Structures are given as C-alpha cells and as structure tokens.
Amino acid sequence: MPPTSTSGAAPAPDAAPGAPGSLAPGPVNIAGIEVGGERLVLLAGPCVIESEEHALSMAERIREIAEKRNVPFVFKASFDKANRTSVTSYRGPGLEAGLKVLARVRREVGCPITTDIHEPSQALPVAEVAALLQIPAYLCRQTDLLLAAGETGAAVNVKKGQFLDPKSFAHAVAKVRSTGNRRVIVTERGVTFGYQNLVVDMRSLVLLRDGCAAPVVMDGTHSVQLPGAGDGKSSGERRFIRPLVRAAAAVGIDALFLETHDDPARALSDGPNALPLDELGSLLDEVLPIHELGRKARG
User: Fold this and answer.
1) How many alpha carbons fall within 13 Å on the CB side of residue 252?
2) Which of 52, 55, 70, 257 suits 21 as a labelling partner, its CA being 20 to 30 A distant?
C-alpha cells in the first residue's frame, strides 16, 4: 500500500496542484497584513520567550518602532528551541505556557504572532494563536510537519534549509500547497559553507521567488550565525547584519526577519547574532529607501 501521512492527508501525486512552477507569485495575507505587496513587512522579536514580561515589553517596543515608519509588524518568539546545540541550553517555556504568553501579546499589543513548530501535533494548537506558522530550516523537508501546517489553513513560512539549493526547496513549498493551502512564504537564511559558517547567495532571493512562486523573506540575523561555534552554543557575527539586509533589500524581498533583543549579551538564545533593539529603527531607516527603489525598478 502507498504511504500515508500521520496528519491524515492523502498522498499527493507527483504533479499535484501547487507543485513548483504551477502557480504565479501573489501576496499572502497574514491577519490583515499583506506580504508581497508594496510595503516591506517586519517579522521580529526575541529568539525565545524568556518571560511573559519580556515578551510583552519587546513586542510593544518593536511595534512602536515599526509604526513610526509605517512598517507592518508580526511578532516572533519561540516557545521551544528544540534544536539547541547543548542539552543544558535554555529551550523556552514549552507549548502550553508559551502559547499563553503569545496569546497575551497578541491581545494586549495588538500584533499578529508567528512562532515555529517542530512536530505535526503542534500545528493545530499553535494555529489558534499564531497567524503565521514557521517551519524551521532544519525541518523544512519533514513531510508530515509541512502537511500538518498546511492543513491548519494558517499562513506558513517555510525557512530554507542550510543544506538546500533554491530549486530543490520548491518541493518543500509544494508539500504545503498539496493540502490546498496557498498561503505560503519562504525565507532565505544562508547556506552552509564549510564548518560552522553560513553564506548568503543573493541570487537565491530571485531563484526562490521564481521557483516557489511565493513572497520572499530575508532572515538577516540567522544568516550571520556561526552554528555550534560558541563552545556548546551557536555564535554569530552581528556586524554583518546591516550589509546583508541592505543587499537583500536591493535585490528584492517582501519581508524582513530579524531576531532582536534589548540586551543581546544576556539573551537566553542566539544573543551573538541578535540585533540590539536600540539599532532596529536606524536599520529600518537604511533599508526602507533601498527596498522602495528596488520595488520600483522591478516594476
């Protein structure tokens, strides 16, 4: 008998609707925010939920920075960092407690939520709170996870694995679309270059848009990560965030993903590659004019 998905979806034929090349690019609506329209969208927040108070404070401050510049904003924070380098590293509050925090942020700050899922069983409960489900780069080929995310009907952000080329990545997007869910965006976060290093091929932003027929996000902070280079944790080269983001805006992106923290040196996860919160406004001031020029040039 043919294999079946644990999420309940029937296996799709090789030429299923939503396969690479079968759709035209178009905007994706996330709780009233259009990704792929004229405005650059910001997906931002701390890597992980550190406390309820910290999440609320960060969301409020990022919203103020974004609103001042007329930038649509979706708050990001993880309830569980399931892929930490060391077993002793902080992972987060967990699914139940984390979703309560994110629901409060959504309610009190008034911004849509995105967070990552790691198992098919997490898709439905997370979709009750998050308008955008994030598929981690390491898990971007996990068929059951992609199908479960698609079946919720929520928008899905699939992050391209550090081990994949843009052409191959289109098949991951097709898995989500095989559920009938066309609300997919894709994220570039760098590709492995030797040991403990990532590089960003700016051609990938064009290839992703063409091959996946989806709005494209640039992850400006994970792209400068040095995986596992911090003696039991990842390190990073924060100084490259600005030039990479400026370059991506010139090539053409629809949204910008940034992990930011009010005190990166004390962050509980990914501090070395987090953008200091007090630099977020000036970074957006640099990027927005470039994005607008690029958008006009592309027509």
Assistant:
1) 19
2) 257
Q: How far apart are CA 42 and CA 32, in angstroms?
A: 14
Domain regions of the chain by residue span: 28-298
Q: What is the pLDDT tens value at each position of the chain, 299 positions in all? A: 444 444 444 344 343 444 444 455 689 999 999 999 999 999 999 999 999 999 999 999 999 999 999 999 999 999 998 876 778 788 889 999 999 999 999 999 999 999 999 999 999 999 999 999 999 999 999 999 999 999 999 999 999 999 999 999 999 999 999 999 999 999 999 988 888 888 899 999 999 999 999 999 999 999 998 776 566 656 678 899 999 999 999 999 999 999 999 999 999 987 888 999 999 999 999 999 999 998 877 76
In degrees and rounded to multiples of 5, residue 15 shows phi and psi of: -105, 40
Based on its alpha-carbon atoms, the radius of gyration of the chain, rounded to whole angstroms, reads: 18
Write out the E strands in 238-297. 255-261, 275-276
Kindly state the tokens that stand for 190. 């760098």
Asked if 278 and 238 touch (Cβ cutoff 8 Å), the reply is no
Residues 6 or more apart whose CB falls under 8 angstroms from that of 2 comprise 11
Q: Name which of 84, 73, 80 is nearest 99 in CA terms.
A: 80
Q: Return all residues near 195 (Cβ < 8 A) that are at least 6 apart.
A: none
Residue 48 DSSP code: B
240, with CB counted inside 10 A (0-12, 13-18, 19+), is middle
Q: Which two tokens stand for residue 234?
A: 């990842």
**C-alpha dihedral over 292, 43, 248, 276, to 10 degrees?**
110
Cβ atoms of 199 and 269 within 8 Å: the answer is no
What architecture is domain 28-298? Alpha-Beta Barrel (3.20)
